Amino acid sequence: MSAKGKVLLAYSGGLDTSTILAWLIDEGYDVVAFMANVGQIEDFEAARTKAIKCGAKDFILEDMRREFIEELIYPAVQVNAIYEDVYLLGTSLARPVIARGMIESAAKTGCQYVAHGCTGKGNDQVRFELAFYGLKPDIKVIAPWRDASFYNRFAGRSALLEYAASKGIPVAQTKAKPWSTDENAMHCSYEAGVLEDPDHTPPEDMWGLIKSPEKAPDTPEQITITFTKGLPTKVKIQSSGKEVTDSVEVFDTLNLLAREHGIGRVDIVENRLLGLKSRGCYETPAGTILRTAHISLEGLVMDKELRKLRDSFLSRSFSQQLYDGLYYSPECEFVRSAIPASQKNVNGDVRLKLYKGNTIVEGRSSSETLYSADAASMDVVEGFDVEAAGGFIATSSIRLKAHGLNQTRKGLGGVDKQSAHAGGK
Amino acid sequence: MSAKGKVLLAYSGGLDTSTILAWLIDEGYDVVAFMANVGQIEDFEAARTKAIKCGAKDFILEDMRREFIEELIYPAVQVNAIYEDVYLLGTSLARPVIARGMIESAAKTGCQYVAHGCTGKGNDQVRFELAFYGLKPDIKVIAPWRDASFYNRFAGRSALLEYAASKGIPVAQTKAKPWSTDENAMHCSYEAGVLEDPDHTPPEDMWGLIKSPEKAPDTPEQITITFTKGLPTKVKIQSSGKEVTDSVEVFDTLNLLAREHGIGRVDIVENRLLGLKSRGCYETPAGTILRTAHISLEGLVMDKELRKLRDSFLSRSFSQQLYDGLYYSPECEFVRSAIPASQKNVNGDVRLKLYKGNTIVEGRSSSETLYSADAASMDVVEGFDVEAAGGFIATSSIRLKAHGLNQTRKGLGGVDKQSAHAGGK
Amino acid sequence: MSAKGKVLLAYSGGLDTSTILAWLIDEGYDVVAFMANVGQIEDFEAARTKAIKCGAKDFILEDMRREFIEELIYPAVQVNAIYEDVYLLGTSLARPVIARGMIESAAKTGCQYVAHGCTGKGNDQVRFELAFYGLKPDIKVIAPWRDASFYNRFAGRSALLEYAASKGIPVAQTKAKPWSTDENAMHCSYEAGVLEDPDHTPPEDMWGLIKSPEKAPDTPEQITITFTKGLPTKVKIQSSGKEVTDSVEVFDTLNLLAREHGIGRVDIVENRLLGLKSRGCYETPAGTILRTAHISLEGLVMDKELRKLRDSFLSRSFSQQLYDGLYYSPECEFVRSAIPASQKNVNGDVRLKLYKGNTIVEGRSSSETLYSADAASMDVVEGFDVEAAGGFIATSSIRLKAHGLNQTRKGLGGVDKQSAHAGGK
Amino acid sequence: MSAKGKVLLAYSGGLDTSTILAWLIDEGYDVVAFMANVGQIEDFEAARTKAIKCGAKDFILEDMRREFIEELIYPAVQVNAIYEDVYLLGTSLARPVIARGMIESAAKTGCQYVAHGCTGKGNDQVRFELAFYGLKPDIKVIAPWRDASFYNRFAGRSALLEYAASKGIPVAQTKAKPWSTDENAMHCSYEAGVLEDPDHTPPEDMWGLIKSPEKAPDTPEQITITFTKGLPTKVKIQSSGKEVTDSVEVFDTLNLLAREHGIGRVDIVENRLLGLKSRGCYETPAGTILRTAHISLEGLVMDKELRKLRDSFLSRSFSQQLYDGLYYSPECEFVRSAIPASQKNVNGDVRLKLYKGNTIVEGRSSSETLYSADAASMDVVEGFDVEAAGGFIATSSIRLKAHGLNQTRKGLGGVDKQSAHAGGK
Predict the structure, then answer these.
(1) pLDDT score recorded for residue C422
(2) In this complex, do D404 and C220 lie within 8 Å of one another by their Cβ atoms?
(3) CB atoms < 10 A from the CB of A411, how many?
(4) Is domain B181-302+345-370 in CATH 3.90.380.10, yes or no?
(5) Between chains, do D126 and C328 touch, taking CB under 8 Å as contact?
């Protein structure tokens, strides 16, 4: 074994992590390259070959698609997770699963260190490392892009290329795109490069996953999603009659449909976790459809006050925790433990129309509906005591009247004051 | 004056409120009919004629469009108000303004009573009456649809028609639509009738305001909205070069654009305030565009922690208060007083593409941006101390490590347990 | 069976519910009197005799002390439940247990109705009835104090006395106290009468449970409370060496100690649930000690972020739900289901000194402490990377600097502005 | 001027900051010593003499008592600020004022740097530095206890003493106490040393400010505090008839009373902001009385829903922000801007009895009370429509019944299930 010990490196097959691999060996470490299949399009065999060529002692490929979908994405669907009203957390959700795969593989291969190629300004370094420490408090982490001896040496692409040449590391001949991407089963993200100007419209050829609404078919597709305890357990496609029920197949099917129909692109300036703002473009096909569908079904079956609590407690907390890399934290364990109790009744079907970027709810039904057409009907007297409504209003108005009287006493309230407040009227 | 006194009636010109008008006179009241112009399409002169024909002593028409937009809709834009993730509160926002118009007109015309034709199961009775009591605690309210002597007598449309005939009240010959609507500058709502089955897809001919995405033009429109302190102060349409800056014109312009491009339809089963669930379809053209644009600009200029506070405090509270009819309450006055301080920096432009139901952000800019391309850039070392990020991670991980160690001590934590928890792996 | 059916009446043995009992029989019902032992001082046999004498078909006494303490009070201890910063919810917590006893007894005795003697302005009518409906949605409820035929007839004590005399109902010869009380294992409450003036100091002879701090012993007592998963599982009294471990005994022991040492009196003007304010005085002996002890132990063992979530989610929600009579609601079921996960680590001992109204924490210890003396020590360099603190500050200050610069740009920020804002300086 | 420039040092007169002063000069800086009078007991002239003797170019003493009380403490009183249910934030509140004094003095004296003697593990380094950067984003900060060249050289008291001797710095002959303290007008804190064992009872001679309840007088004192817009504007002492109205005098008077009557000691294990837990003992005399009094008055005059919003929004946020050193942040500016609107009606008197550690509310009154004795009275039928209460209950129970029926349908709910859930019954 090398003098300094053994490192498990999160390897992407690209120039950066290949350089890091070779550099770690130069620094005196043995290196095991690790790659997680979380649904990205990737030539895994080519990556294995390249890693070994760079000097890796071993290459580990873990297929983590199912646990990514079932353990991370599906709870996010259950709580309608969203960050800053726009971002569906595709990258954030993948990190805990990859980090766990790394810690497990590090244990199996006897690595004392884990290393990653995340930049020193971004969110992912935080997400990976907080996950590492939460899972294995005594793990040692190497982050070359925060290590002056690395980042000073490799500042700029030419230094990387030169080093790669010197080490015989093959470099893809394709021209680097003027942005960077991260892809998995949930989404593909685009940031940096030309996107750093938040007023620069994303070029159409950037979007790699989802058709533009303009190019999506003129004919809508209709589908039905069945939820069981808040989880999507069946998708039926009307045009073909096809049905799928396996969790991964359900997600993959929705991904294909949404990509075809232009659903799931967003463009946001978001607050990163280290205090900077950052511009990101995201394509989240299945996640976008599922969010609309799940919210719609909850309208039918979830109690009003439970929904308020779930929204302000579970949804906001879970979204923030995932964004902030806190999946393996006491507070996220707590939040996750509370999700199932909120989803007991979220059973039923949602019918949707997919058309050029739109996910249109066409109907929803459930055997556990809390909705009563008779009670709600304006045309039916039965099922609701309208005089009780008067009692509700009378009691609710007590404190408003007390406030109104107090305002009047102080010469502050009443119509005149309110109008004056209106300004300019 | 009549024996019982004078009533100001919220009059719509329809069969219900015309019947109520005549019935109030039968009951011994003098009646003044009141109508607010809050942007709905309406033949106000026909309504005046009909009210007088029904026996009203007077007919008052108040043009409240500007105060509706400036005092109610614009604060909702500033806080990104939304109810249950879907409903933009079009009806809820109109009620406080109409109620204020009524209380003011009641004072001017010497009415001791106000009356409305809202049903006894719905939200609007609550919204109107809580507003009345908040503005004038000693006002007396008549709600015929909660009065047994009225609702027992007029149960069903035929009883209303018969009474109308007996009173010489003209009835529109158009066949009643199988749903009911409420329209104002913010939105048009549809509920009841065939919509009471939440799995019944809304018929295409129901949607009266907004083109369907399918029928919207194949050519997108591009616009720029300028915000000043969170309020839309200019709209520029790229194709025509037209610019508008007056608050009402801005709103009207966005309404026309959204209606043309199929933007702003939703369909929801929502939790009404009296404990029932209800299905509603809403068309909110300008409001939908403004929400997307405002959120996008806030991403650029609003501080992260201020945004969290604003979201959980102002946005949720204001939305719930408006839905619940609590505009004239101590808590809503408090919330409204806090809005401006959150919007001081929300100044800048948002560029949008409108296309078949989609509001696509193409860019945003501001002279008060908190975004720094250099600091955020992955390619630039300057502007951010990457070693500080390591310090942040180290301090943030302290309690996660303590938790991890405690879990391990109890035989609960670590990788194995977490994996086991994953279930089935 | 009587024509109208059978009623289970919550019977207290007092003049009000005895009158209601006789009146229900007059109205044509059969009546079963129900009494719950929730720890109040009461002559249950005398109550039984009196109920039968008043005409009850049966008298049911349920000993519900253990379930009151274990199912209601202990979760309140776990979440540090408190209403409006002062009230420990003694009455609120008893209602769900009593209501459940009533619904169970009504089922066993074939009663179609349940009745109670709560006033029409108070909280308890709401708490009882919402619990009844939550447990048995089709139960029929009789609330005489909201029934005009009852309350008009029995307005004033003399009408009640006259009726009692006419029915041969024995009336206690003791002079009525100028306030009303409610007692159970958790607390004794005082309200109404002379207390209705919120500036009237409660008379010393009102307080029936707890010694005044002035009259409490001059010698403090020291005790140790052991918590297991947030529940008090042992109390040790230092002076006597006595130890108790049974949940009811633990609670009773703490009650005795607190009563002796003047601990647990409060006086509050609170917001009732129907919109009125009300003045109440409460004696909560054991509950006051447990709250202090539990909070102190949580300081040692509970994670910081978990604590924040628990406080804003579980504690506030549970307290409000209990106050509002919503124990048997979807939202309270949800909250209760989340409590245990927050208390897994709340294991350890708290040492307290009880002295003249004060509960003084003298120390706390736990085998699951998250506290590290070495890490926290100002004198030890080990266990904490002080340079990491610098990194934390540097990243945390990024957005504050951006804000400061923006303020300066606008001529708003910086020292001068802040000083000016200070006002008057 | 020295080569490296000029430093404003927060100087305490103790061994640490005297060493830092001399060391900074060794390092090539000119040093100005700064001291803020925030109400601590201190020989300021001795400090000046010592600073000059240590080599300071100048010594600046700023009397900041009034702004500390009016700008920091009083808003904390208005929101009932508290951290983790126990700590009244005495140190946290002083930091923003001292930091502002330093930035202002640095500007006046031409210092490019500010320096402090806070340890590298504690909260105060964060509070000072975030305040510095918020007020003057380009200020340069020197924190010797995070600088390896300093902390490695001065690890341990003997190194400090030796260096002091070499520099002719006078050292107090009093034996160092086995804990450290921080004192200001709001409180005195004790931590470290023997207190690092959280199960070590604080020695009686540690508490320097407040008498122990045991030693407090046997005779209570009665006082009346008058609040205006939530601020204490008058204190009247019953025994002497003395009245004070100036803000500083009010606070000082309450401090004296509380110290005499044993009020305001707490002992807590709290969560520091850098992820560690820490044990602190605090004496907060006036603050403890004011909190009790202010909460009591709010009960009388503050609307129920406004109170909920204020508690969950202003109180929690402000407390956390102050603890975390975020006074000069966008979010705290926002919170502070919202406080006055919540306190408009908080006008009135609170009568208190002070006795051996207890602050006992004896009554409260206000001309703006929202309390109505008639409406609340159980004995009066007027002022409240009891049948409306029935309507409130009926509407509130709608969703509980729907839930109950759904549970029954699923075989989950109802009495039996609830009892079973009770466990062990």
Answers:
(1) 36
(2) no
(3) 9
(4) no
(5) no
- Residue B315's φ and ψ, nearest 5 degrees, are -70, -50
Between chains, do B356 and A351 touch, taking CB under 8 Å as contact? no
CA distances from B7 to A285, B58, B79, B153, B163 (A): 56, 11, 37, 21, 20
d(CA B38, CA B49): 20
Report how far residue A123's alpha carbon sits from residue A275's, in angstroms, rounded to the nearest whole number: 10
D268 → chain C, closest CA residue: C296
Point out which residues pair with D86 in neighbouring strands: none
Specify whether the CB–CB gap between B279 and A371 falls below 8 A: yes
pLDDT value of position A420 = 35
**In this structure, which CATH number among 1.20.1280.260, 3.40.50.620, 3.30.1360.40, 3.40.1380.20 belongs to the domain B6-64+84-176?**
3.40.50.620
Q: Which 8-state DSSP code applies to residue B275?
A: S
Nearest neighbour of A274 by CB, restricted to C313, C330, C398: C398
Residues of chain D with pLDDT under 70: 1-2, 173-174, 374, 376-383, 412-425
In this prediction, residue A382 has a pLDDT band, given cuts at 50, 70 and 90, of low
**Is-catalytic flag, A16?**
yes
- Residue B209: which residues within 8 A CB-CB, separation 6 or more? B183, B187, B188, B259, B283, B285
In this prediction, residue A190 carries a pLDDT of: 96
Token duo for residue B217: 């033009």
Are D60 and D128 in contact by the 8 Å Cβ rule? The answer is: no
- Overall average pLDDT of the B404-409 stretch: 83
**C182 CA: distance to closest CA in chain A (Å):** 25
| Residues C6-72+91-176, CATH architecture | 3-Layer(aba) Sandwich (3.40)
Q: Considering only CB atoms, which chain D residues are within 8 Å of B308? A: 331
Q: CA of A277: which chain C residue's CA is closest?
A: C399
Domain D6-64+93-176, classified CATH 3.30.1450.10, yes or no = no
Task: Report the topology of domain D181-302+345-371.
Answer: Argininosuccinate synthetase, chain A, domain 2 (3.90.1260)
For residue A412, what pLDDT is reported?
Answer: 64
C310-369 residues touching D, CB cutoff 8 A: 311-312, 316, 320, 326, 328-330, 351, 355-358, 360-365, 369
CB-CB neighbours of C66 under 10 Å: 18
For residue D16, give the 3-state DSSP assignment: helix
Contacts of B306 in chain D (CB under 8 A): 330-331, 334
Catalytic residue among A95, A291, A310, A351: A95
| Span B133-178, pLDDT tens digits | 999 999 999 999 999 999 999 988 889 999 999 999 988 766 778 8
Q: How far is A142 from chain B (nearest CA, A)?
A: 11
Task: Write the pLDDT tens digit of every residue in A217-243.
Answer: 999 999 999 999 999 999 999 999 999
How far apart CA A312 and CA D286 sit, in angstroms, is: 36
Residue of D69, D143, D67, D75 whose CA lies nearest to D100: D67
Q: How far apart are CA C211 and CA A36, in angstroms?
A: 67
A180 counts as catalytic? yes
The Cα of D144 is separated from the nearest Cα of chain C by a number of Å equal to 11
Q: Model-level pTM?
A: 0.95
Distance between CA A144 and CA D91 in Å, rounded? 39
* Domain spans in chain C, listed from the N-terminal domain onward: 6-72+91-176, 181-302+345-371, 378-411
- Picking from B68, B139, B55, the residue whose alpha carbon sits closest to that of residue B104 is B139
The two structure tokens encoding residue A198: 């938040």
DSSP E strands, C15-79: 30-37, 58-63
Shortest alpha-carbon distance between residue A401 and chain D (Å)? 10
Buried b (16+ CB within 10 A) or exposed e, C369-381: bbbbbebbbbeeb
Q: Does domain A6-63+94-176 have CATH number 3.40.50.620?
A: yes
Which chain B residues are closer than 8 Å to D337 by Cβ? 338, 341
